[in-house]
C-alpha cells in the first residue's frame, strides 16, 4: 500500500510539473499573438472559448457521467470558472501585455504565499515562524522584481494585473483541490472552461475578433505562424491539457504542495521569453525573482506539516471525521 501511494504521488507530481510547464509556454505565445494586434482580453476570450468548444463535446460523448453535478456544486463550479479559469487567464494576459513575461510569471506565483495565508486566517491553522519569514522574503523579492523605486520603468497597471492573477491563482488551487477530490477532472475542467468562456464573452466577445487578424503572422523567435494557429495551440496545449493534468494531480496532492510545484512556471516562462522574445530580467530583478521564489517555497515547505496537522486535528473533532478518519488517507485531509 505504501509503495502504491508513493507511486501515485510520484505520478501526480509528474502531472503537476507537466501542467505548469505547459502553462508557462502560454506567456511567450500569448505575447506573440498580442504583438500581432490582438488585445489581451480578446486573446483570453478566444483561448477559453476554443478550449471549451473542443473539450466539452468530447466529455459529453465519452464521459457523460463526468458532467453530472448536484445543485450544491453550483457555487464551486461558478467560482472555479470565474476565478480559476477566466480570472487567472485574463489578469495574467493583461499583465503580459504591459510587463515582461518573466515579471508577470513571478507576480502570479505569489499564489503559494496567499494559499498559506488562507490556511492560517480562514482555516485557523497555526503556522511556524519560518512561514512568515518566507512571506516577508517573497514580498521583498516582489519589490525588487517590480522595481518599486522606478515606477516609470515598470507599468504599475501591469504589476496590479499580475497581483490580481496571483489572487485568482490561489483560488484555482483551493477550489481545484476541493473539486478534484469530489468530481471527475474531465467534467470539472469542461464545466469550468464553459463558465469561463461565458464570463469572458461578456467582457470581450470572441466573435468580434476581425477575421483578417486571424491570418496575420505571429512571430515567436525565428518562427512565424498565423494567429489562428497560435490561438488554437493556446487553447489545446496551454489550456485544456494543463488544466486536465493539474486537476488530476490535485486528486493526489494537497494544494500546498501543488502550489510549490507551480514555482517551476516562472522559471520556464522566463527562459522561453529570453530564447523566443529576447526579454531578459536585469540583475536586480533576477535577485528579486530568486528571493520571491525562495520565500514562496519556504512558506510551503515550512508550513506543510502544520497545515496537515491542523486539518487532521479539525477533522478528528468533527462527528463525520470520527467515523472516517481511520479509513481516509492523509492526503485527503485538506479537502
From TrEMBL:
SUPFAM superfamilies: Multidrug resistance efflux transporter EmrE (SSF103481). Residues 16-145, 157-299 form the EamA domain. Keywords: Cell membrane, Membrane, Transmembrane, Transmembrane helix. It is a multi-pass membrane protein. The chain crosses the membrane at residues 45-62, 74-95, 101-119, 131-150, 156-175, 187-207, 227-245, 257-277, 289-307. The keyword Glycoprotein does not apply. Belongs to the EamA transporter family. This is EamA family transporter. The lineage of its organism: Bacteria, Bacillati, Actinomycetota, Actinomycetes, Pseudonocardiales.
